[in-house]
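Hi! If you just cloned this repository, the fastest way to understand the data is to look at a raw example. We've pasted two of them here, unedited. The first protein comes first, obviously.
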Amino acid sequence: MGGFIGYGVVRNDYVMLKGSVDGPRRRVITLRRPMAPQTSRMLQEKIQLKFIDTSSQMGHGRFQTKKEKHQWYGKLKKERLYEEEKLRKARLAKAAERKSKGAAP
């Protein structure tokens, strides 16, 4: 629902980096194998990713999915107006049908 700050929603495959990358936003970076073997225990640690927070990182988001947001807010105005218009057309069609049945005999 939120995406990454300064980038937005990522819709394709991606790699998440720990730390920072110098340069401008959206910079293309090249990943390569290290020239020297990693000896630090922290760098050799296996990472088990359990959860990625998809709400806004700017502090305005609190929903992980659109379904969760829809459950909280309920119907939008445009959805309500669409349903009301649909009901109005159905009532008009029913009234026209009754009117035509009454005029037939």
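Ok, and the second one:
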Amino acid sequence: MTSEVKEQAVALFKQTFGSEPSVGAFAPGRVNLIGEHTDYNDGFVFPMALHGKVCVVVGRPNDIGTCRVVTSAAVDGEHRYEFTKPSPASPLTASESALWYSYFLGVLVSFDSNRGNIPSFDAAIATSVPLGGGLSSSASLEVATFTFLEQLCPDLKRSDQAEKALLCQKAEHDFAHVPCGVMDQFIATMAREGHALLIDCRSPPTGELVPFNDPNTVIVVTNSNVKHNLGSSEYPKRRQTCEEAAKILEKAALRDCDMPLLESRRDQLTDVQYKRARHVIQECQRTTDAVAALRANDMTKFGQLMYESHESLRCEYEVSCGELDHLVALAKEVDGVYGARMTGGGFGGCTVTLVRSDRSDALIRHIKERYPENRATCFVTTAGAGAAAVSI
């Protein structure tokens, strides 16, 4: 699939600019197996990169002093953007609105801080990561762009992968105005094929690769095709509420809290603050328990924790929706399914289901038959690799 997306990007480049690209890079989308809305609470998350679901950026330097970028996928209708080569005299700055190219521009600033070391260039972007589906299409674009710039400017390549991920996160904060945690950029940067990544999001964040390559088990990702936009949704409100709760509990972050502490201070919290904190505290524990279950190859336990996670996201964190709840319920009806949950920011997007390999087709058929108007789209995946250069 990476080669197909690369071919799409190369074809778009040739069609738009009339020449061949000279460098390129890809970064994967991701699915979070468990650990939702814990990353910005200094907690634990457990994502894996999506094999074959990638964003590819290809390009070459030009001599016109203007950077030109085109994409094959844009939700806002604008497929091409041009700007003066960033420099101290012509710095890139964030706008109030966040369009697809905001992520691209933010990475350019994070990469070189408008110092003028990036040459003017032409670039084309193609992706197979579903947009707005909670599978980190934004971080895959950011990390693919950063890796592309490393090919364009090899003297500026980062040796520290954590630094690279954090710079991409900063780009999303500053230019897309989304106060995201570090999970998406970390997994896109550090993923390894056949592994999930347990990320401790406390600064400085760290990642531990965990084997996830049982041939008898696969992941099915199901897109509800209900779109969401984290920048204008309830996401920032959830983050603020968690910070308020941690302050009342006199801890640096909810990751530092436990249920006895929460219950002892319940009368000091609003009902909403209590529910949000309860989810985060228990979700952190579920995540570490799930890693232990995976190491023991206990898929039944892992799946039960996924169901518990979804119920908490539905009732305590209130970020699910009817379509996601329906998809989880449908998965639960199929023999061979271990567990399912919503994944991503919520309010639409995707579910992730852990299922026996020989029952994935039956699961997909069941969803297609029972989900309203056959609107769900499904794909089977395994744990893929992180960002890298692509040969042109």
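That's it. A detail worth noticing about the second one: The chain is about 40% helix and 20% strand.
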